[in-house]
Amino acid sequence: MQFVGIDVIFYYSTSLWASVGFEESASFTISVITSVVNVAVTLVAIFLVDRVGRKPILLIGSVLMTMSLATMAVAFLFAQGSGDDVSLPAPWGPIALVAANVFVVGFGASWGPLVWVLLGEIFPSRIRGKALGVAAGAQWVANFLITVSFPAMSGWSLPVTYGMYALFAALSFVYVAWRVPETKGMELEQTETLFHRKASQTRASS
Prior knowledge:
Elements: H1 6-11, H2 13-20, H3 24-52, H4 54-75, H5 92-122, H6 128-156, H7 158-179, H8 188-205
Helix pairs in contact: 2-3, 3-5, 4-5, 4-7, 6-7
């Protein structure tokens, strides 16, 4: 799920807000606020996951991420300058700022915490420990790839970069709608059976 670019928002947020027109001190303050918002909405997701269900929250999160990232891609079409001197004229600066924070809310309230819930439910108990280790490692590899590629990609084209992240967010919606069953209120043994049945049905239809 790191391919939607969430770590870019946190690692490069100060430069992002500077490009929107904020001074360095204000950019740092906004970055801190963004991090606090991420923690707050994560707590909301934890509170709602067993009340609303996994699938609806993930689908809503995917929609919010796709729309906000697509908005950022459009906003940066109007960027002025290049390299570290990129700036956004009005009204696109404030629009990009709002979109970036909507993206953080969408991720933090859905995919951020819930992916770990699903990973704990999807694997059979006999391999769960090792499988979770592999899944966590894959998350960190994806995190590394996105983080190291962003400077080069942003220097080439910020609209294309954020458009790519928006595409991955849209694909997450399709994946959840197609492959992820609802497991609200189920025991682990039931979720294992449900995911196994879903995988078998998918293989049979392909």
